[in-house]
Amino acid sequence: MILKSQVEWALHCCAILAGLPEGRYLSTKALAEFHGLPKEYLSKALQSLSQAGLVHTTLGPSGGYRLAKAPAELTFLEIVEAVEGRTRTFVCTNIRANNPCRAPGYCDETPCAVARIMWEADEAWRDKLRSVRLSDLVEILAKEIPSDLWKRSFQWVLERAG
Amino acid sequence: MILKSQVEWALHCCAILAGLPEGRYLSTKALAEFHGLPKEYLSKALQSLSQAGLVHTTLGPSGGYRLAKAPAELTFLEIVEAVEGRTRTFVCTNIRANNPCRAPGYCDETPCAVARIMWEADEAWRDKLRSVRLSDLVEILAKEIPSDLWKRSFQWVLERAG
DNA sequence: AGAAATAGGGATATTTTTTGTCCTTAATAG
DNA sequence: CTATTAAGGACAAAAAATATCCCTATTTCT
């Protein structure tokens, strides 16, 4: 069970978009080139962000993506779920229903105990992701990325932002 | 990203094995029949439990599986990891290394910040699973499964345990 | 000794998911 | 009018999940 690589891509892209000046847009092409990713496929991840309402888009030359809200209002969970979906990581197929000792028409009232426990763990994972904001990531990056690289990257993005 | 169905199977099988009297064994055949699962494939999940040292096995008629330790000493995490593996759910492909602004030979000192955050969430998931023991599950099941069904199931298993 | 049942594990097949490419359409900027 | 963009559908390739089949060594029972 491994998350799609698109999750990683989306998070890094959002980090870049977080640094974009107000009202400007960055294209799939620029984001793909910056991260060394296949443009067409990255596009699917960005479309997921768009459909989830996390980013705004514009068409035409100088078009592209920008965040739909402030980095402090955008959580990791929102980004992860936009790409990966909201279905729980544990799926209960209710195999207890196959127990040969059960009465034929017997119907369960509560979800399976195994599933409930697994879902609690799933929730713990989501709680953690919900507690981290995009702005937290940007703060960390600003601290640990060498300032010259940080500046050059910022400049690189600005030159390509519509 | 969804866990293998074998995880569900392994958890349910361990719950059954937890009720097995000291020194007795239950076969793949019985476990598969009880849960309505494909015997050959379930066998792979049980082999994973065996390789992880969570269960003991014996060969021959009356052979099968029993827990290698008390249900109170066996955590959900151990079972899940035995089947699903111990690799983290988020894999970092270090796409920051593709940044065109980086100096050619530049080498990162710390893991990517995005990965660190995702791994923390992964740890939260594992922490939760580690906090639940197989005996906790058995307690819950004992409470919510109708007592006649519980007894019949126990009997069913006993009749097939070697 | 022989027959039957078992776990272990290798080989293979099928299905689903992930990853990726290609192309068309509508919108936008210059 | 042209170039560029996002959106999205169709399709292809690769990887992973889900099986199935078969052989071997071991154990139990007769």
Give a short synopsis of this structure.
Helices cover 54% and strands 5% of the residues of chain A.
Features:
homodimer, DNA-binding, elongated, 162 residues, mainly alpha, 54% helix, two-stranded antiparallel sheet
Structure, described:
Chain A has 162 residues and is mostly helical. Chain A has 7 helices and 2 strands, in the order H-H-H-E-E-H-H-H-H. In chain A, strands 1-2 form a two-stranded antiparallel sheet. In chain A, a hairpin with a 5-residue loop joins strand 1 and strand 2. In chain A, helix 1 crosses helix 4, helix 1 packs across helix 6 and helix 4 crosses helix 5. The radius of gyration of chain A is 21 Å and the shape is elongated. Chain A starts with a helix and ends with a helix. Chains A and B meet through helix 1, helix 2, helix 5, helix 6 and helix 7 of A and helix 1, helix 2, helix 5, helix 6 and helix 7 of B. Chain A binds a DNA duplex (30 and 30 nucleotides) through helix 3.
Q: Main β-sheet of chain A: number of strands, strand sense, barrel status?
A: 2 strands, antiparallel
State the share of residues found in helices of chain A, binned by percent.
40-55%
Q: How far is the first residue's CA from the last residue's CA of chain A?
A: 38 Å
Class per helix and strand makeup of chain A: mainly alpha
The total count of helices of chain A amounts to 7
Q: Summarize the largest interface: chains and residue counts.
A: A-B, 60 and 60 residues
Beta-strand percent range of chain A: under 5%
Q: Whole-number average pLDDT of chain A?
A: 97
